[in-house]
Write a structure and sequence with these properties.
Radius of gyration: 31 Å
Low-confidence stretches: none
Order of helices and strands: HHHHHHHHHHH
Strand content: under 5%
Shape: elongated
Number of strands: 0
Number of helices: 11
Helix content: 55-70%
């Protein structure tokens, strides 16, 4: 089963590089006939066929090939348009843009906004409470107590 120089020369005459032939026989375990007669799978040839449709949909080569590699059909990979960044953010957004802009206008960074929510502050309060160190400290417990007292 060892490949001879004749095998390498025959594979080369069929357009198979020496390293490809070697890999097919010794690494992949193919028989010599299959290794020298199976054409090279050229990814660019897939792209050439679908490039017109893909570019019309704003899809580049690497995006197209990534989609194909992930198991998309070639037609899907070429015709399903990319998400706009804003569309993707809107789908994943937990808090409204209006609330985040309000926080920004009040001098509250996104990280502070999310930190406040994580510590139990409502999103509205997280966007509106002043950022200053001299404001009265508000904790979840004190808010609950004030709400409980006001509801009694």
């Amino acid at each position: 089963m060892r490949a001879t120089e004749e095998d390498y020369d025959l594979a080369a005459s069929k357009g198979i590089k020496r390293s490809t032939f070697y890999s097919r026989v010794y690494i992949l375990g193919w028989d010599k006939d299959r290794a020298m007669n199976t054409p090279i799978c050229r990814r660019k040839s897939i792209w050439i066929h679908w490039s017109k449709a893909a570019t019309q949909n704003g899809i580049g080569y690497s995006t197209f090939m990534t989609r194909v590699h992930k198991g998309w059909t070639r037609e899907e990979a070429a015709t399903i348009p990319l998400y706009e960044s804003n569309d993707l953010l809107k789908k994943r957004r937990k808090y409204s843009i209006k609330l985040l802009k309000q926080a920004e206008q009040n001098g509250i960074s996104r990280s502070l906004f999310y930190h406040r929510i994580k510590t139990g502050v409502t999103p509205e309060e997280a966007a509106t409470l002043p950022r200053y160190a001299n404001r009265p400290k508000t904790t979840l417990r004190s808010r609950e107590e004030s709400q409980h007292a006001s509801s009694s």
